[in-house]
Design goal:
Helix content is about 45%, strand content about 15%. It is an alpha+beta fold. It has two domains: about 50 residues, Molybdopterin biosynthesis moea protein, domain 2, CATH 3.90.105; about 150 residues, Beta-Lactamase (2-Layer Sandwich), CATH 3.30.450. The strands form two sheets. Strands 4-7-6-5 form a four-stranded antiparallel sheet, with helices on both faces. It is elongated. The two termini are about 20 Å apart.
Length: about 220
Amino acid sequence: MMNDLLTVRQVQDILQVDRTTVYRMLKDGRLHGVKIGQQWRFSHTELDSFLTGSPAVNAAEGSDLSLEILPQTCLQAMQDMGADATGVGAIITHPDGRPITTMSHSSHFCDLIHSVESGRQACQVFLSNLARRPAASSRLITCHAGLECMKTDIKINGEVTAVFIASQFYTTPPDPVVQRPRIQKLATQHQLDAAELAADAAEIPALDPTQRQRVTTWLQ
């Protein structure tokens, strides 16, 4: 949860050092933190390990996570809040596309596709391909089901550690001439009811420029 994260001031109090020393330790790698907005936050567990001299327990142990700075509960909470605020879906994956968090704000359309094995596999293939794309080429991508997505790489110490993906929206309402055969193809491919799939697709939001900018800012 967010309460698992410490502020710079709290780290100062625990280590009995000034702010400059905290930033110096952050810069030289003795401390690891993550920037949320304009503020640095630090894992309580990792700071305890620093104080005792014992190795930090990797959050990946037992759950195959690659992020060591933030507990999964913190990632999920931040992702959920952002997805609810922007009205789009969101997920954090490993650099190869394997999910770390659970999808936030999932649409009925995507839930229906995920209800069958072939749909889940198609979505996972897309996530894997999207996660591996260079960040510069991934500003706006259309998924296998015709929805649009954006991604950003999460870097720790200069290395891509995870990928943050915002998805399940349109930038412009789909053309009915294009949408009808696409829905029918998806329904046939995954043995779903075409009418139900079309009704769920009609609920997918088309973001106006202000909403798109909000999603872009959130990812950054």
